[in-house]
Design a protein that fits this description.
The protein is α/β, with parallel strands linked by helices. The chain is built from 25 helices and 26 strands. Among the domains are: 128 residues, Malate synthase G - maily-beta sub-domain (Beta Complex); 138 residues, Malate Synthase G, Chain: A, Domain 4. 43% of the residues lie in helices and 18% in strands. The strands form seven sheets. An eight-stranded parallel beta barrel has the order 3-12-17-20-21-22-23-24, surrounded by five helices. Helix 21 packs across helix 24 and helix 24 packs antiparallel against helix 25. It starts with a strand and ends in a 7-residue tail after the last helix. It holds the Pfam family MS_C. Pathway: Carbohydrate metabolism; glyoxylate cycle; (S)-malate from isocitrate: step 2/2. GO terms for molecular function: magnesium ion binding; malate synthase activity.
Length: 726
């Protein structure tokens, strides 16, 4: 135990102790003695309750498994519902209430726009995401397949492609901030006269904005500005003017770019997209979060042999139409997603030598770090309202939401924070939570700032909860199944009924195909039309493109329309996605197995052997999909379910895994750090972990992948400490 220091009745990793005492605590007004004694008190009180909640999960699952075994051939929906109420899985109806959250930043309560989720373990990704508050529409269109046949390759500028980008952008301006007469395509000069935008047209006439209040400001000289700031649906658009720029020189009005306010918020993720399995990893994650909160995080970027330093962007300065100076935030508002209630970490041990709940440690350390922002100790501010935004994932039912609320109370007390400084985002991603969402929100109603339909984990939990009910639908059919559609509607409906607009975000899930921006533009507007005030995107460019949807749809109007509609039927969420008497062909079954196995192996091998928590993995059709532990949970549980019900055999699954390992090996052959699985299947940590996730899938708590992944990753790090790659 030489790597641990004894502090009170705790044994704390020396790495963590040094980080907390030498880096995180200074400047917070919290002494080391107060922090460690406070943490010990919180752990002593809450570890037994944490364990009891996990035992309750197992108890409920065992009851449900037995019920399905008994009534597999005689399923009666009303009897099933009554059974769930009897065991306490379905909770009593909650009386009407509205949340009372106070001190929220406008990005949470007033504005609607895209949201990024990024592994905070990667400083470059974290900085890119934080700086994605503003993004170039020209670059997002030119560099992707959004409006053209394919993404642009590396090379010289293509004028024909550029012309189509500019034409799209000018059409966007015509729809969003139209002129009284004519089109933005015809403008030859922009300027401000007496606080109004004046556009000089190619025919010699002058015009202004159809709605004068859409002018928000300018930069430079009013008569000849270098930037014109416009606003629509609360989001800003900046016309950048520079006739000396290569693009501006060829534009009649000198427009070199159209900058959009894009990612209003970003979730700095300590959970599904990272691989943090020990004290070393946890300190790395915490250190990057500290850099973000202190405003001094840096990353060295090397491109074409040239290095540069990436930092957080400063705020943007403008003058109002009445010539008053003002600033707009240059960065997305940062939330932090900590881990759920399940996992433990050996970064801190109890007196009995037990690893402590990782979620409790996360709450204490990330909260401590965020105090730097609350005290404005750095050059940049995150929350101007003095709040800390914590996204809490993987909670099951209102008991666990109440536990999170008590945990936040205790952390506020130990850090000397006002009550409800720590806000909570509730990931509506587990079946027991979505069925009892209103009761969950009531438990955190004074600190709630976010609900989100985490449809990926929600699907994984649906499969595991109903594992014994029968063989599950194929994955692509799951996306249109009644329970999933009802879940997406119910999440918004409950959020509106509980008064979230103006106080909290109502969110939707990730677009998982980062290379298919044309499809995203065509489809993801559905999230905005559904009444969601934010939705996840996989990249800064995707955030810019998704921002177009929030200009097209006024979210508050959509929410008022939904509130006037009939309520959705919650019973639809209880319709199981089971295929009774399946008649799939052998080819259909094999293709589903191939697709699942390829995704599992492509993700797991990099997680276990390289410590990469989020990867873009090609599916069986070659489409790159963003994979994390939530998608892994679906695929592994789906294969476990088909094995359980005899849709496929263990021999067929193993043959599929070995064949798909060859495919994944070929996909990674240019990576010098990659070790082929097929070289020795029995000695490949990644391959063995993938096998366990499937063949031991039913035994995993709620189908979660973390216990197996963590164990194998720790073994790899012990064998090859240099194996960690971020």
């Amino acid at each position: 135990m030489k790597d641990y220091a004894t502090i009170g009745n705790l044994r704390v990793s020396v790495l963590l102790q040094r980080f907390v005492e030498d880096e995180a605590l200074p400047g917070t007004g919290v002494s080391a003695a107060r922090f460690w004694s406070g943490l010990e008190a919180v752990l002593t009180e809450l570890i037994p309750r944490n364990k009891a909640l996990l035992m309750r999960r197992d108890e409920l699952q065992a009851h449900i498994d037995e019920w399905h075994k008994q009534y597999e051939d005689d399923f009666e929906p009303e009897a099933y519902k009554a059974f769930l109420r009897e065991i306490g899985y379905l909770e009593a109806e909650t009386e009407a209430f509205e949340i009372g959250t106070r001190r929220v930043d406008p990005e949470i309560g007033a504005l609607a726009g895209p949201q990024l989720v990024v592994p905070v373990s990667n400083a470059r990704y974290a900085l890119n995401a934080a700086n994605a508050r503003w993004g170039s529409l020209y670059d997002a269109l030119y560099g992707t397949d959004a409006i053209l046949d394919a993404a642009a390759g590396v090379g010289s500028y293509d004028p024909a492609r550029g012309e189509r980008v500019i034409a799209f952008a000018k059409a966007f301006l015509d729809r969003t901030v139209p002129l009284k007469e004519g089109s933005h395509r015809e403008v030859v000069d922009y300027g401000l006269i007496e606080g109004r935008l004046v556009a000089s047209m190619s025919d010699g006439k002058r015009t202004g904005l159809r709605q004068a209040d859409k002018l928000a400001g300018y930069r430079g000289e009013s008569i000849r500005p270098e930037a014109v700031l416009l606003r629509n649906n609360g989001l800003h658009i900046e016309l950048q003017l520079d006739r000396s720029h290569p693009i501006g020189a060829s534009d009649p009005a000198g427009v070199k770019d159209v900058l959009l306010e894009a990612a209003l918020t970003v979730i700095m993720d300590c959970e599904d997209s990272v691989a943090a399995v020990d004290a070393e990893d946890k300190v790395h994650v915490y250190r990057n979060w500290l850099g973000l909160m202190q405003g001094d995080l840096e990353a060295i970027i090397v491109k074409q042999g040239q290095s540069s330093v990436r930092r957080l962007h400063s705020d943007r300065r403008y003058r109002s139409p009445s010539d008053a100076a003002f600033e707009l935030k240059g960065r997305a508002l940062m939330l932090v997603r900590t881990v759920g209630h399940l996992m433990t970490t050996n970064a801190v041990l109890t007196a009995a030598g037990e690893a402590v709940p990782e979620g409790i440690l996360d709450a204490a350390v990330t909260g401590l770090i965020a105090k730097h922002d609350l005290l404005a100790s750095g050059p940049l501010r995150n929350s101007r309202e003095g709040s800390v935004y914590v996204v809490k994932p993987k909670m099951h039912g209102s008991e666990e939401a109440a536990f999170a609320n008590v945990l936040f109370d205790r952390v506020e007390d130990m850090l000397g924070l006002e009550r409800h400084t720590l806000k909570i985002g509730v990931m509506d991603e587990e079946r027991r939570t979505s069925l009892n969402l209103k009761a969950c929100l009531r438990e955190v109603k004074e600190r709630l700032i976010f609900i989100n339909t985490g449809f990926l984990d929600r699907t994984g939990d649906e499969i595991r909860t109903s594992m014994e009910a029968g063989p599950m639908l194929r994955k692509y059919e799951m996306k249109t199944s009644p329970w999933l559609l009802a879940y997406e509607r119910a999440n918004v409906r409950v959020g509106l009924d509980c008064g979230l607009p103006g106080r909290a975000q109502i969110g939707k899930g990730m677009w998982a195909m980062p290379d298919r921006m044309a499809d995203m533009l065509a489809q993801k507007i559905g999230h905005v039309e559904s009444g969601a005030s934010t939705a996840w995107v996989p990249s800064p460019a995707a955030a810019v493109l998704h921002a177009l949807h929030y200009h097209q749809v006024d979210v508050r109007s959509a929410q008022r329309r939904i509130q006037a509609e009939d309520r959705s039927c919650p019973d639809e969420m209880l319709r199981l996605p089971v295929q009774r008497n399946p008649a799939w062909s052998a080819e259909d079954i094999q293709r589903e197995l191939d697709n699942n196995a390829q995704g599992i192996l492509g993700y797991v091998v990099r997680w276990v052997e390289h410590g990469v928590g989020c990867s873009k993995v090609p599916d069986i059709g070659g489409v790159g999909l963003m994979e994390d532990r939530a998608t892994l949970r679906i695929s592994s549980q789906h294969m476990a379910n088909w094995l359980r019900h005899g849709v496929c055999s263990a021999e067929q699954v193993m043959e599929t895994l070995k064949r798909m390992a060859l495919v994944v090996d070929a996909q990674n052959e240019r990576d010098p750090l990659y070790r082929p699985m097929s070289a020795n299947y029995s000695q490949s940590p990644g391959f063995q972990a993938a096998c366990e996730l499937i063949f031991q899938g039913i035994e995993q708590p709620n189908g979660y992948t973390e216990p197996i992944l963590h164990r194998h990753r720790i073994e790899v790090k012990q064998m090859r400490p240099q194996g960690r790659s971020l």
